[in-house]
């Protein structure tokens, strides 16, 4: 089974996207304010159409359903009618998501049960990019209207823009209507500080993707796209840095999305809060892919938890919730196990804390907690990156067979790429440790522009990616 995901025409780190962003920015700056929503909605649907023109209708259907359901919900009086409208939104969005994302998984399961084997013939089933994100965002709006937390948007143009806003359309952040819609309506004047901050975010996003991720990719390709045996150096890097690799890639995309939006005056939600310093798996998910975690807990976990009174039932619910998180990532058993293991670990952490089985306090033990959490995340990350469970087991098996002799006797390949990734990580970590460095620089325009140009040249000189062949990991979801 192979899913075809066509996103190559306008990746965030390509020249084509840079042209689109420049056109949008200049149009947003120079055209009358009342045309801004037209500029943004046009750019958003053009952005999607350049990748999958034949599937633009999915955006329109999801948006139309929730636009109408929101309006009717606000006017409806009877509970039965309101529940019916909410159910309509949920069923249609879940159907769109399920049909396009999980159809082959369900078909394979049916074939296995009825004929004792897998008989799927749809080898090139097209997966709509961004469907896991825009269906949740659109459906969340209707749920908020039903709960009385959101006034329905009456202007169809602004609502369809909310569903398809191009910086966050493909891989989030998953925005709430109460946060994004007012900003789409606002007519903010150009602000130089905001523009500069947005450009800096874009530069850091490019550095993460084109320097750090691209530099590590050859090692990860050796392990997860090929036979992992006989590659001790690549194995150590690809397993021990698996979660860091995913983080650099996904946060790089998020920086590009937030930076693109910030330069036109629209602030997107933060999706990460230093997850590599988490002290437990529970803490990790409070820092990692924050908008997805909050969506799942606000709209699924919390309503179900209110119906469960037993402690055991709540533990089961935690595991179930993270099974859904895993399934959200894709119709692959590796993602389902990825979610299950995180949920199970959180339950174990909760039981240990309840019984007092925790590490002592103190800075040294705090560091031990961080190392423990990072190690678990790396093990789970290897499963996440593996194409199948047998491949993941082969990776784990090969890792346990690696000896010090194997490491020192093996020639390190891709030395230049590894060095550039290391340099990029130093720059990134330096900025993370001293995020106010730019504000502490001399106010001289010369020094600031010297830094910006220096960072841009660093990205250009040390980039090891050709852009087209290095799509973001989360674009497949």
From TrEMBL:
It holds the Pfam family MBOAT. InterPro entries: Ac/AlaTfrase_AlgI/DltB, AlgI, MB_O-acyltransferase, MBOAT_fam. One of its GO terms (molecular function) is acyltransferase activity. The keyword Transmembrane helix applies. GO terms for cellular component: plasma membrane. The chain crosses the membrane at residues 12-31, 38-60, 80-100, 112-136, 156-174, 195-221, 233-253, 312-329, 445-464. Pathway: Glycan biosynthesis; alginate biosynthesis. It is a multi-pass membrane protein. Keywords: Acyltransferase, Alginate biosynthesis, Cell membrane, Membrane, Transferase, Transmembrane, Transmembrane helix. One of its GO terms (biological process) is alginic acid biosynthetic process. It is found in: Cell membrane. This is Probable alginate O-acetylase AlgI. It comes from Meridianimarinicoccus aquatilis.
